[in-house]
Design a protein that fits this description.
Shape: globular
Distance between the termini: 60 Å
Number of strands: 10
CATH architecture of one domain: Sandwich
Radius of gyration: 19 Å
Strand order of the largest sheet: 1-8-5-10-3-2
Oligomer: single chain
CATH topology of one domain: Jelly Rolls
Strand content: 25-35%
Largest sheet: 6 strands, antiparallel
CATH superfamily of one domain: q2cbj1_9rhob like domain
Order of helices and strands: EHEHEEEEHHEEEE
CATH class of one domain: Mainly Beta
């Protein structure tokens, strides 16, 4: 008797990324804007929590005062195009939160989820070498780590069957992912700040839709 073997990989985690090829023409101005925000505003209450004591985060929806208009439309458009690839039908999305985040040397962010939104994302602005990766963790590995530690490399690499999966920050690159996915940011081992724009998207209507 010959057995017919098949593989099914169920419950995949959908992550969508994009790269703005024209980002470098705007990078300098965004970095200057971020550094200026530190000088003139207090960080959002609760932004300096456990595991992120050396990180600075602006107030939420930092662009609501119009000060980010020089780049907002490009940012919104990239978010819209990237998020559209999730295939969510008849769900208009709005920015429920958005922050300029500055991670100084030695900072990191412990594992967490975003339970109050549908999707979360990051746009990397200034990323010195070894300034911290975005790492997604697999809840399933907590229950049987031996499976993920010893799985065949071909299956691990072809199907991301692993305990964790990392994205190295690339300037102009955006990653959007379901808010329920556990993730962390590894330590900034460089001697410079890493700057990013982080955001949450939800279906709760407000003045900042991602759709034009």
């Amino acid at each position: 008797m010959t057995e017919k073997i098949f593989h099914d990989f169920i419950f995949p985690s959908h992550i969508v990324g994009s790269i703005n090829s024209e980002f470098y023409s705007d990078k300098k101005k965004i970095v200057e804007y971020a550094n200026h925000l530190i000088d003139i505003t207090e960080p959002e209450i609760g932004a300096k929590g456990p595991g992120s004591s050396k990180a600075w985060r602006s107030k939420s929806l930092f662009f609501s005062d119009g000060s980010f208009d020089f780049f907002y439309e490009k940012f919104r458009s990239q978010v819209e195009k990237t998020a559209s690839q999730f295939g969510l039908i008849n769900i208009p999305l709005f920015f429920s939160g958005a922050w300029i985040t500055i991670n100084s040397p030695g900072s990191f962010l412990i594992t967490h989820v975003h339970s109050n939104c549908l999707l979360s994302g990051v746009l990397w602005v200034d990323t010195p070498f070894d300034s911290g990766d975005l790492v997604f963790t697999n809840n399933n590995s907590w229950y049987c780590p031996e499976v993920f530690d010893n799985i065949d490399d071909a299956i691990r690499n072809n199907y991301a069957c692993c305990a964790s999966y990392s994205y190295k920050p690339i300037e102009g690159k955006m990653i959007i992912f379901p808010g329920y996915l556990p993730h962390l940011v590894s330590e900034n081992n460089s001697n410079k700040n890493r700057i990013s724009i982080t955001f949450n998207l939800s279906q709760h209507e407000n003045s900042f839709p991602i759709h034009n």
